[in-house]
Each structure stands twice: as structure tokens, then as C-alpha cells.
């Protein structure tokens, strides 16, 4: 049972497979993760619950670890995560729910975000929906990692930003960017204080053009300095992208 109290703020840590959703954020006439989450919370808690997410993923993008906060007038039971998981569809999983200070914010108090992008270097029927199948042309991983180092020279990533968004700034502080190969699987890990819409997929698409020889590693500087989305490569497919961590100073 819940005991009545002043308004309390809770953080919810969860994960989802984004295949069936038009991103995290609620969309008109389109199914979203946020809509499913709020519907489940509101039904179980018997009050209207609104969540604020750590960020919004694009259509088809996955999240292995993401946070949101919500407010309620009730002290929540430890059984709530299990009850939510029973109520939610199989492609959304609640990992934990915990109380935070009433002014702690899932989006604005995040100190970093980390994404991973997966590419399959051989035709793999088991990763068709979880990695970019790029097996027809080889990729030069060393050159792609050369280009990664150039990212740290800049903070304005306008060239990788989706056009016509409400971003007040395109400045991002890059913390990590590297490619690793494990057998026939290639993984790009990138971490920054914030990301622009479509930014990671645009970076990956540009990196792949470098890996195939269409661009040279040093061309990354011109792409960034142009501050023009048309200077960068085509966005990599959404299904290979995963939000894997959001950092906070709890």
C-alpha cells in the first residue's frame, strides 16, 4: 500500500527495443515509448502520470539504459517495477525505480550520454534487425579511428544535426569516440555531454564513407567546419543505434 505524502519525485531506469516505436517522445498519431510508459504508470498508480525523459531517441533507435523522472503524491511500493513489467509490452523493460530530490531532472541534470552503434561486417541473418549489414564493401577501421580523433578538436557539430530542429545551440563536448572490432562485428562507442538529433547516425554515416575510401580521415575537418548537414554522410540506419548509458551525480 502507498501512504499519502507531499509530491515526490522518482527516477525510473528502463530499456527498450525501438523497432516498433516512433522514438521515445510522445508523437501525434504515432506509438511512442513515452506513451506506453505513462499509460502503464497512470493505470497502476491510478493517477495521471507524466514523465520527462533523459533524451528522445529517433524512430527505430534502441535504449539499453535510459532514465525518466515523474512526480506522484504516493510513496511507491518496491513491487512497482515488477507490476509495470507485467503491464508493459515485451519490448519495454523496467529495471529500477528510486526516489530523488524533488528538483532533480532526468534531462538537465545528466552529465553525459553514451551511445553504441553496431555494424555487421558479414551477412548475418541473426543481426538483420540489430546491426547495419555492411558486408558488400570492406571498411578500414584504422582510418575510421583516425577520423574519431578529429572529433575532439571541435565542439560545434552543426554538420551532424538534423535540419529544422528547436536546438538553441549545436555545441557538444565530446568525451569518447572509438571503433572496436570483435570478429565480424564492429562497434562504435561515442560519449558526450549532449547530442543533437540524428547526430550519432550522421557521424557513423560519415565514418563509413571514410572507411570505404570515399572520404579521407582528414576530410572530417572540412565536414565539421562547413557547418552544413549536406557536407556530412547519409545517416546510418536507426536499428544499429543504442543509447547505453546516461550519467548523473546522484
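^ Assign residues to that structure.
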Amino acid at each position: 500500500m502507498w501512504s499519502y505524502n507531499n509530491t515526490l519525485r522518482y527516477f525510473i531506469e528502463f530499456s527498450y527495443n525501438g523497432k516498433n516505436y516512433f522514438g521515445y517522445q510522445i508523437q501525434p498519431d504515432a506509438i511512442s515509448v513515452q506513451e506506453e510508459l505513462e499509460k502503464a504508470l497512470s493505470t497502476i498508480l491510478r493517477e495521471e502520470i507524466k514523465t520527462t525523459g533523459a533524451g528522445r531517441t529517433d524512430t527505430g533507435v534502441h535504449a539499453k539504459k535510459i532514465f525518466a523522472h515523474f512526480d506522484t503524491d504516493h510513496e511507491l511500493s518496491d513491487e512497482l517495477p515488477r507490476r509495470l513489467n507485467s503491464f508493459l509490452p515485451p519490448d519495454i523493460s523496467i529495471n529500477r525505480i528510486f526516489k530523488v530530490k524533488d528538483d532533480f531532472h532526468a534531462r538537465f541534470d545528466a552529465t553525459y550520454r553514451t551511445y553504441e552503434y553496431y555494424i555487421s561486417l558479414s551477412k548475418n541473418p541473426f543481426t538483420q534487425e540489430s546491426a547495419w549489414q555492411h558486408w558488400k564493401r570492406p571498411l578500414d577501421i584504422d582510418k575510421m579511428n583516425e577520423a574519431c580523433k578529429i572529433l575532439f578538436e571541435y565542439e560545434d557539430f552543426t554538420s551532424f544535426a538534423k535540419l529544422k530542429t528547436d536546438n538553441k545551440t549545436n555545441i557538444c563536448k565530446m568525451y569518447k569516440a572509438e571503433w572496436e572490432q570483435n570478429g565480424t562485428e564492429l562497434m562504435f562507442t561515442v560519449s558526450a555531454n549532449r547530442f543533437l538529433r540524428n547526430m550519432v547516425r550522421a557521424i557513423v554515416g560519415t565514418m563509413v564513407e571514410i572507411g570505404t575510401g570515399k572520404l579521407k580521415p582528414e576530410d572530417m575537418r572540412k565536414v565539421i567546419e562547413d557547418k552544413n548537414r549536406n557536407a556530412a554522410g547519409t545517416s546510418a540506419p536507426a536499428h544499429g543505434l543504442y543509447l547505453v548509458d546516461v550519467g548523473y551525480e546522484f
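The first strand starts at residue 4 and ends at 16.
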